[in-house]
Here is the input.
Amino acid sequence: MLERLQKILSARGIASRRKAEEYIIAGLVKVNGTVAILGQKADPEADSIEVDGKVLQARQEMLYYLMYKPAGVVTSNIERNLTGPSTIEGKTTRDLLPKNLQGKLFPIGRLDKDSEGLLLLTNDGVLAFRLTHPKFDHEKEYEVTVEHPIMEGALDKMRQGMTILGEKTKPATIEKTGEKTFTIALTEGKNRQIRRMCQKIGNPVVSLKRVRIMTLSDASLRSGGLRPLTQEERIQLLASIGLQ
Here is the structure.
């Protein structure tokens, strides 16, 4: 069935209709190898539609899973060589997947080896881009336990932003939950950011757990557990980043 291109792109989660129109005007959309024009229609079942050089995939082919990564597991989709030398040491998130999903799901962002908690896995490249690109400011929340009692002044320094890895971190939302515990919500993901921030205030992290990714949370998911997103979760997640 013929539909306007901007409607097709919106339905497939590539962009809102308005943003899709901008892509078409910019010449980033092709139909059967020819640059599309605004107002053009196509049949998504019969025509080859490309956006910025990538062939459009049907949204129904996309997979979305939530995993609870245990501490000690490496966030990686690389298959380990169990019979010879390998660049990956120890168990990976790929190893936690059932065989039928290995190589089909990719972790979005990283959760360092020593940390635990929620990890989103998908084959949706557009979602992956939106959730990992710094310009989109998508929030992730963590529960942190530190070595020593933590003062409000130290938390204020982290709230306001501090320089690590030569760059100042963005402001963070922090709530003290105990003598040595607090929650922190970040809109960026610098390498081992929370650990480096706590190290800088002289209070090393003892444990770090991610408890929320944007609209996704699940206090009942056990360590090493994996489940597909519900339809409602998928819709809320995609809508929160303008893909629904």
Observations:
- Residues 231-240 form the longest helix (10 residues).
- The chain has three domains: 3-58, 62-131+220-240, 139-213.
- Residues 74 and 113 are 5 Å apart (CA to CA).
- The chain is about 25% helix and 25% strand.
